[in-house]
Amino acid sequence: MDPTGTPLNARVAPNGPIVGALNNGLLVAIVDTRDDANGRPWAFIVRAKDGHPFGWVFREFIACF
Q1: Structural domain containing residue 47
Q2: Would the CA dihedral through 16, 1, 33, 35 be positive or negative?
Q3: Best label site of 13, 21, 38, 53, fewest CB within 10 Å?
Q4: pLDDT single digits (tens) 32-48
């Protein structure tokens, strides 16, 4: 869990414009990954329960259990 309570920004592309924000604790699935132009890792995520797409998030901000 994120101790800061800050929502996670979802983007249209790796490091692209923000399209929304996700609350901490939401269960998601990673369906694609890629690095941006600076070599930073990004993941395209969907809601785990129904596959609803959210967008690209900075991979290092996702906690896997």
Answers
A1: 8-61
A2: positive
A3: 38
A4: 999 999 999 999 999 99
